[in-house]
Structure formats: C-alpha cells, structure tokens
Amino acid sequence: MTGLSDTFNRPINYLRMSVTDRCNLRCIYCLPAEGIRLLPHGEILTYEEIDTIARLASELGINKLRLTGGEPLVRVRLPELVAMLAEIDTIDDISLTTNGILLKDYASELKQAGLKRVNISLDSLNEDKFEHITRHRKLNEVLQGIEAAKACGLNPVKINMVVMRGINDDEIVDFANLTITEGWHVRFIELMPFATDNPPECHSTGGETELHPQFMSAQQIKERLNILGKMEACKKPVTGNGPAKYFRFPQTTGTIGFITPISEHFCFNCNRLRLTAEGKLRPCLLSDQEIDLRQPLRDGASPEKLKQVITEAIQTKPRQHHLPQGTIPKTRRMSQVGG
Ligand code: SAM
C-alpha cells in the first residue's frame, strides 16, 4: 500500500461505489414520483469491472469500500460482488448503505460473503409518514431488515435519518429514544441541496439568509433532545469512516451521531472518493466534477494507466464544497451518486 493523498494532504483511503442507479423507493427529497431516466444496462459497470477498479484503488491505498446506489440490493446477486471484493487482501472494511427493504432476504448471505456492517436509511417510524416520505408503504420490511442485519452479526447497524422540519422532526425524540431502549445507533443527517428538479421545498442552501424552512441544523436537532436528559460525547468513535460526531445518553449502549454537511462542514477531513454506477469517479459529493474511468477500462487501458486516472481524479478534489456560495450539484441526483 502506497498511501494516497490529495493536493491538500488529505489521506484518501475510502471508496464509495454505487452499483446501480435503480431504487425501489421514491423519497421526496431524492427522486420524483415518476422516477428518472435510468442508465441502459450496458452502461452500468459489471461486477468484474467494479472488482477491477476496487483492486486498482486498493493498490493505491484505498482500504475501505462502501456499496451504495440507487438501492444496492435491487442489483441482482449483490453478495457475489461482496465476495469478490472481500478477496482483496488490503481491503479491511466493506460496508453497505441501503434502505433496508430487501435486507431481510440478503443480510445473512451478505455477511457470509464478507460484508462487515450496514447503514440503513430510515426517516420515519410511522407507517403513514414513511409512506409520505418514500412513496411506498414498506416500513415493516425495513424494520425486519434491521432485525435481520443485527441477528446475523452485521455490526454496527447504523440508522440514518434525514431530518426535515415539518415532515419528520416530530420523530427526533422517538429515534433518540431507541438508542436508550434498543441500543440503536442513530445518525441525524442535515438535509442537503442536490440536483435540479427535486421539489425546491425540500431543499436548503448553505447561505444563512437562504436556509429553507425544512432545513434543521444539528444544533436545532440537539436542542430537541434535551427532554431526554444530558448527552455525553462518545470517547470512542463508533466503527466507520464517517464524519459524524457521536454522543450517548449515560449508561446506554446506543449512540446518537450528527452529520453536518451544511452547518459545520467536515471537508478538511474528507477521505473519500466516489464511483458512480456507470464508472465516473466523483472526487466530491457536492461538486459536479467527474472523471470517466469506464471508457479507458473498456478500451483496455493498462492497470498503470487506470491507476493514473484514479490518482489524477483525486488530485482534483476541491478543498471544500461551495454550498454557502450557492453552488449546488446539478448534474445528478443523490440516487445517482450514492450519498
Ligand atoms: N438506497 C440507499 C439508501 O437509501 O440508503 C443508498 C442510496 S441513498 C441516495 C443514500 C443516502 O442519501 C440515504 O441515507 C438518503 O437518505 C440520503 N440522501 C438522499 N438525498 C439527500 C439529501 N438531499 N440530503 C441528505 N441526505 C440525502
């Protein structure tokens, strides 16, 4: 392993790979009800291509992989991909971001294939509200998925909630309570502005004067939790590569994380590179800049040449995102990048 850094001396060791642009939900802040134009299958990287890219990236210093989407579990035979990636010696962490709907069917197979842990997106514990947010009535499937993931030892299971004022902020305390009663690891995520034609009422921008009424900062979310008592900062971070700051209520096993891309960006610690389902490297989630890796891969470029493309992509990683200046990613939706 050589170790990989960008031009700001940030070590880059984490690759998030989107395996599909398809999703079985239509969350109001992410996708329109009718869906979006999907990539033809031939444009999506094959498992062999994803594996090749992961191997080359690992030779450059990437040692953590996350599979995301779209919804990664709608791609057929995902455990086969996990098993391929698990054979890469220098990869020591493979994780998955999922909406959890299909997890009860795959958790055990994924674990056996080499998946270490899972993040499950869940924005409401109320069936009607879940349906309003996701446009599907599938809360029970997600809850069963969470149980299945825990039962087969995918650990930790983290629950990610995107908080939206007036939509699900009345459930902040309910989610936090589950860290006390059930030992859940809950992370509250600030709503990010993304893509062009999402309903504008679901967006905020980083500019102080332009914050949308649905945006809630981590600080505002924290204030809602005062009713449950005083949280303490976690001394040991919960396993992962993420930017969350963790807290817990005394004598509980669960944790509460805050992910603050808007109110307190964490770009100076960013260790990530992203790969879209059709093989574009995306150095920054919140910047439209992308570098194509699929074409040279399909043209038969040498491993050295492909590694050079990856290295050069990393060198274009911006110092930080520019949401406060009003630069919002426009070319893709979050479902086409993977979060
Ligand atoms: N389908 C998978 C899932 O639901 O976790 C993976 C893809 S999804 C795009 C990844 C994450 O991005 C989800 O947790 C989702 O809630 C989050 N997300 C999507 N749009 C967002 C936005 N505008 N702001 C904050 N988080 C967002």
Write a brief structural summary.
The chain is an alpha/beta fold. The protein has helices at residues 47-60, 78-86, 103-113, 127-134, 139-151, 172-181, 218-224, 294-298, 303-315, and strands spanning 14-18, 64-68, 93-98, 117-121, 157-163, 185-190, 232-233, 245-248, 255-259, 272-275, 280-282, 291-292. The protein has a single domain (14-336), classed as TIM Barrel, CATH 3.20.20.
Question: How does this structure look, described?
Answer:
The protein has 339 residues and is α/β, with parallel strands linked by helices. It has a single domain (14-336), classed as Aldolase class I (TIM Barrel, Alpha-Beta Barrel), CATH 3.20.20. The protein has helices spanning 47-60, 78-86, 103-113, 127-134, 139-151, 172-181, 218-224, 294-298, 303-315, and strands spanning 14-18, 64-68, 93-98, 117-121, 157-163, 185-190, 232-233, 245-248, 255-259, 272-275, 280-282, 291-292. It has a twelve-stranded mixed β-sheet. Helix 3 (103-113) links the parallel strand 3 and strand 4 (117-121). The longest helix has 14 residues, at 47-60. It is globular. Mean pLDDT is 93; it is low at 197-202 and 204-209. Bound molecules: S-adenosylmethionine.
Mean pLDDT: 93
What percentage of amino acids are in beta strands? 15-25%
Q: Which spans of ≥5 residues are poorly predicted at pLDDT below 50?
A: 197-202, 204-209
How many strands appear in the DSSP assignment? 12
Helix and strand succession?
A: EHEHEHEHHEHEHEEEEEEHH
Radius of gyration: 19 Å
Shape: globular
Please describe the biggest sheet, giving its number of strands, its sense, and whether it closes into a barrel: 12 strands, mixed
Q: What is the total domain count?
A: 1
SS content category: alpha/beta
Bound compounds, each kind once, are:
S-adenosylmethionine
Strand ordering within the main sheet? 7-8-9-6-5-4-3-2-1-10-11-12
Q: Please bin the fraction of helical residues.
A: 25-40%
CATH architecture: Alpha-Beta Barrel
CATH names the topology as TIM Barrel
Under CATH, the homologous superfamily reads: Aldolase class I
CATH class: Alpha Beta
Q: Termini separation (Å)?
A: 27 Å
* Number of helices, where a helix is a run of at least 4 consecutive DSSP H or I residues: 9
